[in-house]
Amino acid sequence: MDRIRISGGNELKGTIPISGAKNAALPLMIASLLTSDTLTLENVPHLADVELLMRILGNHGVDIAVNGRRERQEDGYSRTIHFTCRTIVDTTAPYELVSKMRASFWVIGPLVAREGRARVSLPGGCAIGTRPVDLFLEGLQALGAEIEIDGGYVNVTAPQGGLVGARYVFPKVSVGATHVMMMAATLAKGTTVIENAAREPEIVDLAKCLSAMGAKISGAGTRTITIEGVTSLSGARHRVLPDRIETGTYAMAVAMAGGDVTLEGTDAALLENALDTLRMAGAHITETETGLRVVRNGNGIQAVDITTEPFPGFPTDLQAQFMALMTRSTGVSNITETIFENRFMHVQELARLGAKISLSGQKARVEGVPRLKGAPVMATDLRASVSLVIAGLAAEGETMVSRVYHLDRGFERLEEKLTRCGAVVERVSE
Ligand code: UD1
């Protein structure tokens, strides 16, 4: 199994290209199940989760063609991929595939909308809490679907004649359930109104793509999304929006290690809350024509309190990275996690590097220390693992992060991007 070795202490200087967003690419790829025409996605990041979803979609009958041509010629990070699902050959998403990645459960929406039925294994994914699927099922039931759970599988059947539009109020904001309900409603009869919808930029990106495919959607990005069902969708060409979590992660890495880095191909509007928080912590962040410039020279890191919230609040997917930064602050930071109940698994690993963190329920109290010292640590989930890399960049000596397959699920060529800015980071294969 690969590990990542970091020799801490170097400032970061240079340019990092930001990839297409994993969390947008996945639902966009799944949307290809809704049409028999070709959906072409540009700026698709090269990640283990994307590869896995390609396998899952292939199983349902999606023909996938990856262009040899590079999107950005000089660095060649992202790809253009064509997805064509002439017919759905299998409406079952098996346990062996779905258990590896939670988002693959989302195929349930397009499958039932187009074929009238689906059999999808209950999901797996990151070990960050119980992550139930009740909201997905209630949303589909509101559209008239019948649901039965049997042997670890969800069997869902649309009424005769297909799903029927309805008004549904989500009792809790869910990104995935909003994606699924939006996709399912595009082919339902009549109007669907989703209340208390997730407002994440990835929801807006999916709505844009579905609209380009002929769906009638308004309100994406607000709490209320309205969808007028249509009888069929066509193909489209769509560019995946930049990854705001990757953007925030590298911004935090610069704040941690110090230096001056331009993040290319991203957009500050995608993560204003996190950038404002970083500014309070002492980073100097400016918008450039093509992205962001993050600088921290000499000044210390200030302690800032955060509470994770659905968009536009501080994202839970940046909580671990921000905690890593706070371990080196000059004060005490209180970090409250409100989205997932078990998302502090990085705490004990950060402690191995010398961080002082105490936990009480969903709150962490981080007391800044003047120095961290390198140690062997273990990645436990996607975002937690990158927080250990950030900590390692500022730790004295060598930090060895094991179980880096978590990183490969969501960060495209992480060590290459950091190395080109002067960090000493290398992958060690065994
Ligand atoms: C998505 C993101 C993930 C991010 C999360 C929150 C993708 C591929 N993943 O995950 O990176 O951390 O949003 O921003 O986009 N819940 C229920 N019942 C349900 C569904 C969810 O109780 O049926 C709960 C979850 O357990 C969690 C909360 O709702 O406590 C939010 O989860 P949700 O927004 O659904 O996260 P995902 O879509 O899985």
UniProtKB/TrEMBL annotation:
EC numbers, comma separated: 2.5.1.7
Record-listed 2-(S-cysteinyl)pyruvic acid O-phosphothioketal modification sites: 126
Coiled coil: none
Sequence intervals crossing the membrane: none
Principal location: cytoplasm
Class of this enzyme: transferase
InterPro entries: Enolpyruvate_Tfrase_dom, Enolpyruvate_Tfrase_sf, MurA_subfamily, RNA3'P_cycl/enolpyr_Trfase_a/b, UDP_GlcNAc_COvinyl_MurA
Catalytic activity: phosphoenolpyruvate + UDP-N-acetyl-alpha-D-glucosamine = UDP-N-acetyl-3-O-(1-carboxyvinyl)-alpha-D-glucosamine + phosphate
Binding positions (phosphoenolpyruvate): 22-23
Active site residues of this protein: 126 (proton donor)
Entry's Gene Ontology cellular component terms: cytoplasm
One GO MF term: UDP-N-acetylglucosamine 1-carboxyvinyltransferase activity
Location within or outside the cell: Cytoplasm
NCBIfam families to which the protein is assigned, alphabetical: murA, PRK09369.1
Family according to the record: Belongs to the EPSP synthase family. MurA subfamily.
Role summary: Cell wall formation. Adds enolpyruvyl to UDP-N-acetylglucosamine.
UniProt name for this protein: UDP-N-acetylglucosamine 1-carboxyvinyltransferase
